[in-house]
Amino acid sequence: MLRRLRTTLGDRPSPLAPPLSRYRWLRGLVYLVVVWLALFLPLAGGQDIAHGYRLTGQIGFAAGAAQAAAVVLALWRPASAWALSLGAALATAAWGRESLLLALHLEMPAPAPTGLSPGGGPSWPWTVPEMAAHTAVLILFALRLPARHAVAALLVTGLATWGLEGVVGARGVTGTGIAAFAVFAVAVLVGSALRGLREARSQLVEQTTITAEERSRRTLLEERSRIARELHDVVAHHMSVISIQAQVAPHLTPDPSDELKENLAGIRQNALEALAELRRVLGVLRSADPDDPYGLGESGTSAAPRAPQPTLDRLGALVENTRTAGLTVSMEVTDARDAAEPYPPGVELSAYRIVQEALSNALRHAPGSTVRVEVAHDRAGLHLSVINSRPRHPVAPSPGAGHGLLGMRERAGMLGGHVTATRTLHGGFAVTAFLPRDGTVPDTEPTPLPGNVLSVVHPDPDSVPVMYLELPAGPAAPEAAPDPGPPPRTGEENP
After folding, report:
1. Directed axis angle between helix 177-252 and helix 128-144, to 10°?
2. Dihedrals φ, ψ of 309, to 5°?
């Protein structure tokens, strides 16, 4: 036990309370009690010690000051403070031993009880001020050090008190050993309980943080797997076309050479092998049955998707479906290309999913709002913009944590594009995306089309649905457009 206490003297104590706003009052209360004891003990406590033990006023003041110093020291070094408080109390009791024995031998009347000492003689070996100081030290000790160390300090205090009280067990004094030990035990119990509660809360916060990080990481992996499953049909289609064309090519050429036949056969074989490997890898991602890790089923072949993958042609149906859910949605399509060239299937699929997720977010987080969908084509690629006004109805709590935005960024980044999601000036939300045509980032940033530079949704979507702020072309810095402010309201409008 003594070895454990020696180790405790070098331990780094934990803070009084975790750095959370709801514990600031507790930390302030501790400091207030410490300041009060530091001022009270040297004056009233020292006077009571000197009067009860027949000591001089200087010795009593020094004993009270030592207890006050121990309480203050317990804020930083609780183990050292405990040793100082116990040592000062035992030394004071031993110092007054001769005075007490002499008074009893001469049958001198006991000193009159003070407000701090009960009747029946002086309190010994623990006076009330010393007991209060040591209780505060033990509470801080148990708050900042492990419970086993606090129990060891309590046992050492009890043994020292019992040993000293057994040596001077004379009449004419009020024995406080048992009462003091009971108070000290309660102090250790309370301090250890508060420390356990604090550690449990800290562990809960830490576990919650870890769980959130794991959930975010799992969501990212699930989103990537879902994207891979959707792209399976696109890649598999192209690989199948390559295989068929390589098989048919020798029959389209009159008298093909053996070298050409061999090369075309190699192309077809590589395409078939790549297609088979792709199906095996994507089968693992498709399968939800642990007994069928390759997703082959009873027939031994991977199941085909139940519906074709969506493209840009289905954006109109998506917008119409969102209208039926309660949002006012408008869509504008502009085309600045010289010729309407088709996009790769992966670009169209990702564009559809990005618009779908943005509209879903508007439904969840902005009920009753006005939404504008913009689709702009240019030579560099595809520009998407989904902007909603502020919600006009109460927003229900949503369990989501931004995973939809994460999925949109994953889709765009996979194709070399980017997604930006920001709040508008009037309480709405804007999602903009750029998907390059060939899946590579252009050398220069694509120039946005007029009207797509900055869109700000007006707070009253019924009167002014969308307002565009266009930046002037050229290297000069744009001037800030004046804020027209909210439109005048009439008595017919809802508040």
Report:
1. 10
2. -70, 140
Q: Total structural domains in the chain?
A: 3
Q: What is the mean pLDDT of residues 32-50?
A: 75
173 with 252, same domain: the answer is no
Residue with token string 């139940």: 306
Residue 388: per-residue pLDDT: 94
Tell me: do 95 and 229 sit in the same domain.
no
| Class of residue 317 by CB neighbours under 10 A (exposed 0-12, middle 13-18, buried 19+) | exposed
Distance CA 140, CA 154 (A): 13
Residue 228 has pLDDT above 80, yes or no: no
- Please check whether residue 66 lies inside any domain of the structure: yes
Q: What is the pLDDT of residues 339-374, one digit of tens each?
A: 777 888 888 888 998 998 898 888 888 888 899 999
Domain match, 245 and 371 both: no
Task: Give the strand pairing for 174-175 and 123-124.
Answer: parallel
Residues 130 and 252 in one domain: no
Residue 462 covered by a domain: yes
Q: Which H helix or E strand runs over 374? A: strand 370-377
Same domain, 121 and 28: yes
User: 64 pLDDT exceeds 50?
Assistant: yes
Cα(143)–Cα(192) distance, integer angstroms: 6
Q: What is the pLDDT of residue 273?
A: 80
- For residue 414, tell me if it sits in a domain: yes
350 shares its domain with 443: yes
Most confident of 13-22, 91-100, 159-168, 429-438: 429-438
One domain for residues 183 and 253: no
Compute CA 190 distance to the chain's CA centroid, rounded to the nearest angstrom. Answer: 30
Domain that includes residue 420, residue range = 312-469
Answer yes or no: is 476 within a domain: no
Q: Are residues 383 and 268 in the same domain?
A: no
- Assess contact for 134 and 87: CB atoms under 8 A: no
Q: What is the mean pLDDT of the chain?
A: 73
Query: In sequence order, what are the residues at sequence separation of 6 or more whose Cβ sits closer than 8 angstroms to the Cβ of residue 429?
Result: 361, 362, 365, 366, 387, 388, 421, 422, 423
- The neighbour count for residue 95, using CB atoms within 10 Å, is 14
